[in-house]
Write a structure and sequence with these properties.
Blueprint (H helix, E strand, L loop, with lengths): L2 E7 L11 H4 L4 H12 L4 E7 L3 H14 L2 E5 L8 H10 L3 E5 L21 E4 L4 H13 L6
Parallel strand pairs: 1-2, 1-3, 3-4, 4-5
Length: 149
C-alpha cells in the first residue's frame, strides 16, 4: 500500500532563495520540493506539496490531509511560535507530523525558542537547512518501517 505524505510549508517560505539567504540559504521552495520527490523516489510513497502564508488555509490543508495522508512534514514558519489554531489542527488530525525549521530556531531570537506545536508533533528538526525536510521524511519512513537502520 502506498503511503502518502503532505509536505506543508508555512508563511514566507515562498520567498526562499531570496529572503535572508544568510539565514535560510539560497535554495528555493521548488528546489526543496524537487529534492523531497527525489529522496522518496525509491519508496512506494506519494508526496503532495502545499504552501500558504495564511494560518486558516494551513489549518484547512491539515484538516484535508486527515482524509488522504498518512503523515505530514510541516514547516509552520513564524506560526510555530504563535498558533494555537495550528496546534489544535495537528491534534485533531491524528497523523504523525514532523515539525521542520531550516534555521536553528533555538539559536536565534528568544521569541523563536518556544514552539506552540512541538508538543503535538512526533518530533522537531531544526538547524540543518533545507536538508531538514529530508531528515523528516526519513523519520516518517522509519516510523513506517520502510527505511532500515
Amino acid at each position: 500500500m502506498t503511503k502518502r505524505i503532505l509536505l506543508l510549508h508555512g508563511p514566507n517560505l515562498n520567498l526562499l532563495g531570496t529572503r535572508q539567504p544568510e539565514v535560510y540559504g539560497d535554495t528555493t521552495l521548488a528546489d526543496i520540493n524537487e529534492a523531497a520527490e527525489r529522496h522518496i523516489a525509491p519508496y512506494s510513497l506519494e508526496l503532495r506539496t502545499a504552501q500558504s502564508n495564511h494560518e486558516g488555509e494551513l489549518v484547512d490543508l491539515l484538516h484535508d490531509a486527515r482524509e488522504w495522508a498518512d503523515g505530514v512534514v510541516f514547516n509552520p514558519g513564524a506560526y510555530t511560535h504563535t498558533s494555537i489554531a495550528l496546534r489544535d489542527a495537528i491534534s485533531a488530525i491524528d497523523l504523525p507530523v514532523i515539525e521542520v525549521h531550516i534555521s536553528n530556531v533555538h539559536g536565534r531570537e528568544s521569541f523563536r525558542h518556544k514552539s506552540m506545536l512541538a508538543g503535538v508533533c512526533l518530533g522537531q528538526i531544526a538547524g540543518f537547512g533545507w536538508r531538514g525536510y529530508l531528515l523528516a521524511l526519513d523519520a516518517l519512513l522509519r516510523r513506517w518501517e520502510l527505511l532500515g537502520d
